[in-house]
Amino acid sequence: MGNKILLNVIQVIVVMAFSPLIKGVLNRLKERIQSKRGPSIFQPYYDIWKLFHKDEIVSDYSSWIFRVTPYVVFVTPIFVALLIPVLTSYPLFFAFMADMLGGGFILALGGFFATLAAIDTANPYGPMGASRTRMVGFLAEPVFMIVFFTVSFVAGSTIPYIVQKHWVTPIANFFEPAHVLVMIAFVMLIIAETGSIPVDSPSGHFELAMVDESKGLEYSGRGAALVKWGGCMKVFVLFCIFLNVLVSPWGLAQGDHIGEVLLAVPLILLKMFIFILILVIIESSLAKLRLFRIPEFLGAAFVAAVAAVMTRLLEF
Question: Any stretches that span the bilayer, and where are they (predicted)?
Fold first, then answer.
């Protein structure tokens, strides 16, 4: 038991330590694809460190929700990291504390508080961005539910570790139509949840066109650092769910020896870098959608998820 708790702690440390690196690589590759030099892959570390050393300014019109939100956004991905296979293919101490739906609700809690905090300020851009983000979330949540239902139906469980064993361990399962459709739907969800093109453009600085970034415009200092760090960890956790649960357990440690678990760290990062490259190529080939075209994009993800369910049911 003690060893499994230690491995859970190591998973959390890995998520906290390497999530800004994943975000930095993602930003750098986006710029390189466009023939630009781009920022350093360590730029998110510099930004977080710099923000922690700046003063925090809070609006007089804000309530306790605005002050608490950065900590909620920071902590929720850490809780999810305790439940999913980040480094090991076998369940750890906290693996059965919640299932995939519970993990999804925990992640959504951070977004819910971020929306409340944006509305809590007197800045007109915050509520505008919050309403747009909730619109995207409202359309994305049914897709999440159907994707989780499909993989849970096949595995006979909603625990991520058990789903990973039954869903992707037989190599033949990877090429099944239902599996391919679920992966397509989840990739589209990742694009929407991380605010990437065609849903949003994180590199843009025009407030009226922002979807996700405008929620945190009022934060500064430590609050902005926690929000930025929490956003990086959320991306890392979503990548882990997709790559380790839905795609392949390759790179995950099979034994409980500390050395074997630490060896899984570079392998998982390598897998993420390959996925980031594919994601950037897809994103660079698309244009940002108008606000009222975003439901069409998420509607396509919904159709893919429903088709996966129907395909799987017909197989039975």
Answer: 6-26, 64-87, 93-119, 139-162, 174-192, 235-252, 258-282, 294-314
Mean pLDDT of the chain: 79
- Quote the pTM value: 0.86
DSSP E strands in 52-150: the ranges are: none
Report pLDDT digits (tens) over 22-44: 988 888 888 887 777 778 888 88
* Whole-angstrom distance, CA of residue 305 vs CA of residue 284: 24
pLDDT in tens, 128-142: 767 777 777 777 777
Q: How far apart are CA 151 and CA 246, in angstroms?
A: 8
Of residues 196, 239, 221, 236, the one with CA closest to residue 48: 221
Quote the pLDDT of residue 90: 74
Domain map (residue ranges) of the chain:
2-315
Beta bridge partners of 253: 88
Q: Report the distance separating Cα 211 and Cα 291, nearest Å.
A: 9
Helix (H) or strand (E) holding 137: helix 125-155
User: Which structure tokens are listed for 64?
Assistant: 């306790």
Residues sharing a CB contact under 8 Å with residue 133, sequence separation 6 or more, in sequence order: 111, 114, 115, 211, 212, 215
The amino acid that residue 270 corresponds to is L
